[in-house]
Amino acid sequence: MSQNQAEDIQLESKLEDITGITCIYVPVQDVYESVQWYRKNLGCRQPSRFEPVQPGAGIAILRFPDEQDKLPGAGLRTTVPAMFLIQSGSEGGRLGFTNNNGDRVPVGCFITPRIQLLFDRFKENGVRIASDIPEGRECGPNFQFYDPDGNLWEVWQP
Questions:
Q1: pTM metric for this prediction
Q2: Phi, psi for 98 (deg, rounded to 5)
Q3: What is the end-to-end Cα distance of the chain in Å, rounded?
Q4: At CA 94, angle to CA 54 and CA 90, rounded to 5?
Q5: pLDDT per residue as tens digits for the range 68-78
Q6: Which of 27, 62, 115, 129 is surrounded by the fewest CB atoms within 10 Å?
């Protein structure tokens, strides 16, 4: 048995080192205004153990509550981590990157059970939408959008 094969076997029997992602850090120019935007458009909430964010704040933590306004404990909702909005100065955000084809790629993808309703709400609220919902997409409908700081996100309905 080679040393690489022995290492592979050792890794397979090892306990999990990583069990999930707890948060995403999002650069924004104005934390208070960004909290309002994410609440209005994505339904985010601050965990109840934190004081509400006031104008001039440098950081905010947002989560995605269920329909009873409770924070997730298990199931599909645990796949969406908390979002830390962090004041980044005058340059603001710009999460996302360009792939080899020169296309901008979002840094994260949210899950929704109601993609068309979310798309319509974004249009009604004046959210800058970067793509339409494609028809007949094999892995499910999606679209991309920008937050007020130019951070590129995606939303997908499995």
A1: 0.76
A2: -105, 130
A3: 42
A4: 55
A5: 555 555 444 44
A6: 129
| Residue 32: how many other CB atoms lie within 10 Å | 17
Residue with tokens 């040393």: 3
In SS3 terms, the chain reads as CCHHHHHHHHHHHCCCCCCCCCEEEEEECCHHHHHHHHHHHHCCECCCCCCCCCCCCCEEEEECCCCCCCCCCCCHHHHCCEEEEEECCCCCCCCCEECCCCCEECCEEEECCCHHHHHHHHHHCCCEECCCCCCCCCCCCEEEEECCCCCEEEEECC
Tell me which H or E stretch contains 8.
helix 3-13
List alpha helices for 43-132, DSSP H: 115-124
User: For residue 4, what are its two tokens?
Assistant: 């690489």
What does R_g of the chain's alpha carbons equal in angstroms? 19
Q: Give the model confidence (pLDDT) of 19-34 as tens digits.
A: 667 788 889 999 999 9
